[in-house]
Amino acid sequence: MGDWRFENQGEYTYEIVPYGKNMPVCVYVKTEREEILEHWHDEIEVVYTIAGRSIHYIDGQVYVAEKGSLLVTNSGSIHRIQTEPCIDGKYAIVLMIKYEFVERLVEQMNQKYFLTEVHSDADKIHEIMMGFLEFKEKHQEESYAELKATGLLYELLFYLCRDALVEKESVLPINSQKNLERLRGIMLYVRENYKEEMCQQKVAHKFYFSKEYFARFFKKNTGMTFIEYVTKYRVYEAAKEIKETDRSILDIALDCGFSDSRGLIRAFHCVYHTTPLQYRKESRVGKYTK
Questions:
Q1: Domain CATH code at residue 19
Q2: What is the CATH number of the domain that holds 244?
Q3: Over 50: is that where the pLDDT of 14 sits?
Q4: 20 vs 73: CA distance, rounded Å
Q5: Taking CA atoms, which of 54, 106, 132, 137 is between 20 and 30 Å from 48?
Q6: What region holds the HTH araC/xylS-type domain (predicted)?
Q7: Strand duo 44-49 + 70-73: pairing
Q8: Among residues 187, 208, 223, which one has the least CA distance to residue 62?
Q9: Domain check: are 203 and 154 in the same one?
Q10: What is the span of the domain harbouring residue 231?
Q11: Are residues 83 and 13 part of one domain?
Q12: What confidence tens digit (pLDDT) does each residue in 43-56 have?
């Protein structure tokens, strides 16, 4: 299984998730502190917290996940994760479930919505998620192991559908759905134009907001200001170049929308708590390689 990546297709940019040949689910074990900016994907994402604490921004709401928490992010939902350091190493098991797989099992799935916080049989959920962990760490290369993982997925979906599946409009009214569409459009605009000068007032006008309402709208739905989002997005794009190339920090800074290298260095330190050059050095020895 390869790394996740973002790709343009049609109107939106979204996350592409790699799967095994016959697998309707990808299993990941999260072990490091990270912040993932707002994004969306077709897959249904399930996060089970093993240890530590993380904050999830999902469809404009904030959720705190602690040990034993099970959170679901629906297909197409805009979400962001902030994690805190975890001394135990592993802090969460993440499942990325093919939407088409669930759609074949659940009638009128396009009108349904999984509640984000799942309250079900805690012991059974723990058993299932530990089964996924064992599959990931010990058995995924064995013959027919994918059958075991698929069986666990069917069992998990039974509990999710029984205890957390509702009509979409009951928890996400049409107006809220339209607002999320607008937010996706704004984020796509940033991804396509982050190298250029980004004026908040012009972006607000482009998406038919007043400047004041745009600021409130963006902060409410993402937990950060528009400028903070743009800056972090530029830093993350710069980090890819820093890790994968030998280009100068100044050239990367200018190519990623910063006016000079000092602006990138300052913003980079706020996000990664290190300098770009130190990040490049440590990336070469594997510290930042996922």
A1: 2.60.120.280
A2: 1.10.10.60
A3: no
A4: 21
A5: 106
A6: 184-282
A7: antiparallel
A8: 223
A9: no
A10: 194-284
A11: yes
A12: 999 999 998 888 89
